[in-house]
Amino acid sequence: MDKKQEELLNRLLGDVKNIEELDKLTDDLKKRGIKVC
């Protein structure tokens, strides 16, 4: 794997983590009765 592919993979993994965090946040907000688009 070359450097560019490695960078891309790291970025994707970072995005996945962000999405998971976002899911946790939206779940938390829904439990509090706040509507999330």
From TrEMBL:
Q: Which domain of life is it from?
A: Bacteria
Q: What is this protein called?
A: Uncharacterized protein
Q: Which organism is it from?
A: Saprospira grandis (strain Lewin)
